[in-house]
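Issue: ligand-bound run for iron/sulfur cluster - logging full I/O for the record.

Environment: standard queue, default settings, no custom constraints.

Inputs:
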Amino acid sequence: MTYIIVVSRKQGLFSENMACLFCLGAMGNVETELQNNPEKLSRAALIRGGFKPGPKAFRPPWARYEQFFTDTCERDGHCIQACPEKIIIKSSGGFPVIDFGLGECTFCKRCVKACPSQALSLDADEQKPWQVSIEITEKCLSGKKIECRICIDQCEPGALFMKPAPGGPVTPEIIPEQCTGCGACVRPCPVKAIKVHQR
Ligand code: SF4
Ligand code: SF4
Ligand code: SF4
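Outputs:
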């Protein structure tokens, strides 16, 4: 499949008089790559086709779909200022992203109410704040037979539980339908074993 994407001046990668046609996937992937590995995303890499998309950028709650978000967001930082938990940060591309390493989302909606554009919108088709998946990585202490239930104790919705395996370690498991994606389990984990992905 071939995509043709015109990267605009507003999106900040190219100078005023340049238009760019590449098979890049979504702009959010470009931004994520810039955020994670800014040195790797040189124009030369783009031209050579050496760009490999990273994980999807984790937008604030009630963000519209990625293409619409990056087209619409004014990168004014109003959502960042409004968040009482201080978990929204500006990525190197200038767009807001969530960092659960700083805390959890209480779904207070202040960010979406502060947004002057439709980039964050309660009127959107997607009424849920976001669709997430939780990954408990191999760093988890329980898998190494070290007793730990910190994430479970943090999870107010009760979406985590300890699952015993016959002859194996007792490890945390997720009940996806009960997970709100609040991210409260991320920061307290002593070995940073939990990752929340936005789908
Ligand atoms: S809903 Fe509230 S806590 Fe969550 S990111 Fe927005 S402002 Fe922050
Ligand atoms: S408040 Fe809205 S327009 Fe402003 S940076 Fe946040 S998402 Fe973008
Ligand atoms: S992100 Fe999901 S699993 Fe983690 S504390 Fe929140 S509800 Fe529980």
